[in-house]
Amino acid sequence: MKSSAGIIFAFVLLLVLGAFEIWQYREQQIYRESMQHQLVELSARLEGIELTVNQAKEQMRELEGASIGGLIDNANDALIEGWSAMMDAVGRELDSARKTFEQKRQALGGADKPAPEEQVTPDQSEQKAEQAGEGPL
């Protein structure tokens, strides 16, 4: 009897251990499924956040591009207007100088050809400076 009681006890012990292992296995499955579900949720949230961040980055690039582009366009317009105004002013000054030159030319004798300019050597310029009372500084 003792041997059959030992066998029965061993069998019951194996059943209890088997039931415990099965229970533990089911708990692990439930835990894994829960973790898998949480992982899928977090992955979906992360994708949504990445999409939002990428959209915000794109909007920032568009704003920066628009503002920099606007500044460049304004600077180009100002440069072109300034250059045109400067060219107009130079043209007016040249016309004024030409008229003044023509008036002085006509007042001095009306010659069509300008008088030849004298070639002055450095020695001659020193002599003229000494005659005028100018000396070396």
List the helices and strands and how they pair.
Layout: H1 2-108, H2 122-131
Structural class computed from helices and strand pairing: mainly alpha
Number of helices: 2
The largest sheet, given as strand count, sense and whether it forms a barrel, is:
none
Which term fits the overall shape? rod-shaped
Query: What is the percent of helical residues?
Result: over 70%
Helix/strand order: HH
> Looking at the chains present, what oligomeric state does this protein adopt?
single chain
* Low-confidence runs: none
Average pLDDT level:
82
Query: What proportion strand?
Result: under 5%
Report how far apart the termini are. Answer: 142 Å
Q: Give a count of the beta strands, DSSP E runs of length 2 or more.
A: 0
The whole-angstrom Rg is 51 Å
Structural description of this entry:
The radius of gyration is 51 Å and the shape is rod-shaped. The model has no long low-confidence stretch (mean pLDDT 82). The longest helix is centred in the middle third of the chain and has 107 residues, at 2-108. It has helices spanning 2-108, 122-131. The termini are far apart. With 137 residues, the protein is an all-alpha fold.
